[in-house]
User: Which sequence fits this backbone?
């Protein structure tokens, strides 16, 4: 797929539907992150900037013409414009989709602290009339979010227990999770960190906190792997991200840098040539992309992943198993096949964490096992993710597999293949001795 390359002056100040601009001054509590200037500075205006635009999918082009008729392609493909114009309230949302009663109730009543925010690009993927459409269910709340079950917890993974300094989760000896922001371009209703993501009352993640977190990593020589997460690290401007990565790269014992992000799926415009040029300076750098459903695998996302892969960044996916959204073999097969085609290795399939109001999203573990059973042996091995439960109480990721070892007979183990046929494998001391 070819992208169109344009040489252009800095984009015009953004315009939009009048009613859309009226409420776009809300923030997530991290004001500076999304408070991009509405007008380019004189200095910027003098510079000729190279804009490389994605090819539009027919769906997003139709949506832009319908709801943002005064917006140029340049503006639509400017990730900062997308962030400034996120859909965040019932008034705007109801102009784009026909809200069900459950959705309207959730949008108008105070529920969990996780706000609603949907980039115009991602909104273009939503079905206007079907409130049960898979990806629509992941971003528009419903009243079921208000149902809290006894087994649910705000911090089910006990991350706060494993936080030695603000922003660091240190659970495994050789690696840390570095939460660098609490903002995301689009908020997922099942978010494990909904206790802090987009939360006004939580302190912002700024240079002071980052400094302390980096000092912690520098002081702990056993940390060889740092995963930047949040929130979404790619919600940060390039300069801030570059500052973080360059500070971390200077720590001799940090071998591997990783970024966890949903930007390629909800804001593919964020993957600019400038960003990929900057990221490739910090190799080895890996990116895990949060992907939920094959409906997200658009031409725009494909082009965003191509830019990252062409920059030499290995890409893996992380998917949360969600009831009625992606919990069947066919949907998951479409997803993993589509991911391989855009050079993303399906990495983890997560059992949904029991956060408050998540019961309508959670499936039985047997569903996940059934999906792995339906993939393993039936498709390319690279396409099969590892199915894990992140153990409540902070036990870390525990892999789950269907039963393939059925028992022993004498020195043999009895194993089952993907078709259910039984095989023996010599596994006694005798067999080992003969090999040697
Ligand atoms: S992108 Fe990740 S951190 Fe942000 S809301 Fe979704 S699940 Fe949570």
Assistant:
């Amino acid at each position: 797929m070819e992208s169109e390359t344009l040489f252009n002056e800095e984009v015009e100040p953004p315009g939009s539907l009048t009613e859309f601009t009226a409420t776009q001054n809300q923030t997530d509590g991290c004001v500076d992150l999304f408070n991009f200037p509405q007008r380019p500075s004189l200095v910027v205006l003098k510079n000729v900037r190279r804009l490389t635009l994605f090819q539009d999918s027919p769906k997003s082009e139709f949506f832009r013409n319908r709801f943002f008729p005064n917006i140029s392609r340049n503006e639509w493909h400017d990730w900062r414009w997308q962030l400034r114009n996120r859909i965040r309230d019932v008034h705007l949302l109801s102009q784009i989709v026909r809200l069900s009663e459950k959705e309207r109730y959730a949008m108008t009543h105070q529920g969990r602290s996780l706000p609603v925010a949907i980039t115009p690009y991602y909104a273009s993927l939503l079905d206007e009339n079907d409130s049960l459409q898979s990806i629509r269910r992941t971003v528009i709340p419903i009243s079921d979010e208000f149902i809290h079950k006894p087994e649910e917890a705000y911090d089910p993974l006990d991350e706060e227990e494993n936080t030695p300094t603000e922003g660091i989760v240190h659970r495994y000896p050789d690696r840390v999770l570095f939460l660098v922001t609490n903002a995301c371009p689009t908020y997922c209703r099942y978010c494990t960190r909904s206790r802090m993501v987009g939360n006004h009352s939580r302190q912002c993640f700024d240079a002071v906190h980052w400094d302390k977190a980096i000092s912690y990593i520098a002081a702990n020589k056993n940390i060889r792997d740092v995963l930047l997460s949040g929130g979404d690290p790619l919600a940060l401007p390039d300069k801030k991200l570059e500052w973080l990565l360059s500070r971390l790269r200077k720590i001799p014992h940090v071998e591997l840098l990783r970024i966890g992000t949903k930007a390629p799926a909800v804001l593919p415009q964020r993957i600019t040539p400038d960003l990929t040029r900057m990221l490739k300076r910090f190799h080895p750098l890996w990116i895990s992309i949060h992907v939920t459903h094959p409906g997200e695998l658009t031409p725009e996302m494909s082009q965003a992943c191509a830019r990252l892969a062409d920059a030499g960044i290995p890409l893996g996916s992380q998917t949360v198993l969600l009831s009625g959204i992606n919990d069947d073999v066919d949907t998951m097969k479409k997803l993993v096949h589509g991911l391989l085609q855009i050079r993303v290795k399906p990495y983890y399939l997560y059992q949904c964490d029991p956060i408050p109001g998540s019961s309508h999203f959670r499936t039985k573990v047997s569903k996940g096992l059934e999906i792995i059973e339906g993939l393993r042996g039936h498709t390319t091995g690279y396409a099969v993710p590892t199915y894990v439960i992140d153990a409540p109480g902070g036990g870390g990721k525990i892999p789950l597999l269907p039963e393939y070892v059925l028992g022993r007979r004498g020195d043999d183990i009895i194993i089952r293949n993907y078709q259910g046929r039984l095989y023996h494998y010599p596994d006694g001391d005798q067999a080992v001795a003969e090999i040697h």
Notes: The CA atoms of residues 2 and 55 lie 7 Å apart. The first strand starts at residue 4 and ends at 9. Residues 406-435 form one domain.
